[in-house]
Amino acid sequence: MAMARPFLLTSRVSTLRRVQIVHSFLFSSVCRRGQPSPPSTSFSLPSESPPAATKVPFAASAHGRTWQDPYHWMRKTADPDFIDHLRRENTYAAGFMVDTEQLQRTLVREMRSRLPAKVSTPPERWGPWLYYQYIPEGKEYPVLCRRSEASDSGFVNKLLCFASGHSERKEQILLDWNEIAEQYGYVHVGACRVSPDHNFIAYTVDVNGSEQFLLRIKDLGDGSIVQRSEVEGVVSLAWARDGRTLFYTVSDENQRPYRVLCTEVYVIDAAYPLDGLDRICKRMPGVQVFVEHHYDSFYILTNAPLSENKESSSVRSYYLITCKVEHIHLPDLQRIIVPSEDVSFHDMDIFNQHLVLSKRLDVEDLNPWYFPVPTDLCSIAPGSNHDFMSSVYRVVLSSPVMPDVIVDYNMSEQTFSIVHQEEIKSADTHEHLVSECSEVKNDKNFIGVERWEDFSSKYYCERKQVISHDGIKVPLTIMYSRNAWKKGESPGLLHGYGAYGEAMDTSWCSDRLSLLDRGWVMAFADVRGGGDSSWHESGTGLTKPNSIHDFLSCASFLIDKGYVHNGQLGATGTSAGGLLVGAAINMKTDLFCAAILKVPFLDVCNSLMDPSLSLTILDYEEFGNPHIEKQFECIRSYSPYDNIPRAACLPSVLVTASYNDSRQTALITLPFSSLPVCWMNTNANMV
């Protein structure tokens, strides 16, 4: 961790190239001609063969094993042959997709037509200011603004009027992403923090797509950038209470945070930031600690062992404890709330008079007097909630069939108000699609209160429990149109991720309507490796194959139960989700007809054996350490690049990657697509 006074940063400019790799592996449409075809199915074969990459003999070895890797040379991404092969891949991809160009234009037009002309967030109060963002008409990026609350008590109404084009707005622009983008051609703002005294804003910016963020500090009094020094690779930041001192962490050349070298938690007196660090608790494997300060006390959310036997359980639920600031070093802290074994807290927010705890529950278990929720599957995400003195807690409600709703909940009065809900228009008529209000659990308790609107009358959303290979139940979310879906005949797309404890994102996305209206089924498999701590841990390291078997079980369920036609199920995954899908299509090549892999993690074994790559060391905890023989054997058993079957008909696959991507570069994806082409060109039985 480092401390700094305000300073300015600049950055390097480089080119970010998008690589599209499309292969109908082994001409899978030809292989599948013996299978039953759904109605109105068409597929055009490419006019030319996929580009074949150069093979260079290379013997890789580990733990007494040796194998050939003819595409190991691709790790030299500056090699002219590598660049040339990327160009040929892009040319082939463009030719392969040429007969879909009209459909692509139609889909883009539909998706754009559903977006509101102006996008703005409701103001959120923090101290004497109301902060908000909006995207100016005709612009691509947002603008962060504020206005003094005292200057106009009717500001919220005026802002809503502005969104309709009926009012002028007087405001202070704090940060305009569009100005940065005009200067550099690209912008991605990472962290953004206003100082506690509201006089400065610190933000990190990536202007070339490298994900190497640079810190800038802007004086909100005169709008100038504070000229002090340059720091690259800033990961996170926080202000001290004086509003003049900034704490930040930085990453090394491989984008790993390296100046905070342990996972222990320390506190700093924000009023006296130069007094040094004070450790909250000792580091312990598998234990996390989240700390909030409330006057003379600390509130701590942790999964530390409750018993003296610290090795009694490797997976622990989170619970809440507290202590006085001066007693932080005492071994016994006061326990406030310890949930039952099957429940774990996920987040905590603290206010002057209220403490908010978040936990995941079934809808049937919710007490609607605490907070009303729609009857359909939904998520509740906290807003920024900067104002410590407020009694209003802002959240965002979202579901697959309900546009996001911003709700303010008055914790003192136990009442809520809908601040904003996005309006969605029909792609054909430009009429508002949302016409019916969603029901609230125990609806009789909310007579006369404001309701949110959803699409549940047009689109159906189900939550199923699918039995996996070992008897474990895997949650599967299924969406389809009530009018367009046909049992046993509809095509489907199964989404998966299953890593880093991240649950599948099933929040509202208007783009899905274009597929749903065409009869598609959209499904989301919450496989092991995602979700809460126990679910995550049961899909990591040596248990990572569970994620793949869960995904395959969900795919089979969609076909067996008639949700999707046998022969028209596709799969898609991004990054670590690409590993999941790639491994799944290797294991059961006949289950999927197509796959979309976005910046996928495919060459798992070779990548984890290369400590120079940015995520390698961090990923040992997630996927395992291949330098340990048992873990190497496990990784090798599912790594997509190492397990492409030779004597099988593979589905058609679209792979996308970025040449300068700092996480999943083209070198991790390109060998995966090159091997089947090599085999196809050398074995006539494969065509």
TrEMBL record:
GO molecular function: serine-type endopeptidase activity
Keywords from the named record: Hydrolase, Protease, Serine protease
Signal sequence, renumbered to the chain: none
Residue ranges of domain Peptidase S9A N-terminal in the record: 50-258
GO biological process: proteolysis
EC number of the protein: 3.4.21.-
GO cellular component: chloroplast
The keyword Lipid metabolism is assigned to this record: no
Superkingdom per UniProt: Eukaryota
InterPro entries noted in UniProt: AB_hydrolase_fold, Pept_S9A_N, Peptidase_S9_cat, Peptidase_S9A, Serine_Peptidase_S9A
Cited SUPFAM superfamilies: alpha/beta-Hydrolases (SSF53474), Peptidase/esterase 'gauge' domain (SSF50993)
Enzyme class, broadest EC rank: hydrolase
Gene3D superfamilies for this protein: alpha/beta hydrolase, Prolyl oligopeptidase, N-terminal domain
Residue span, Peptidase S9 prolyl oligopeptidase catalytic domain: 511-664
Function: Serine peptidase whose precise substrate specificity remains unclear. Does not cleave peptides after a arginine or lysine residue. Regulates trans-Golgi network morphology and sorting by regulating the membrane binding of the AP-1 complex. May play a role in the regulation of synaptic vesicle exocytosis.
Family of this protein: Belongs to the peptidase S9A family.
Protein name: Prolyl endopeptidase
Upper lineage: Eukaryota, Viridiplantae, Streptophyta, Embryophyta, Tracheophyta
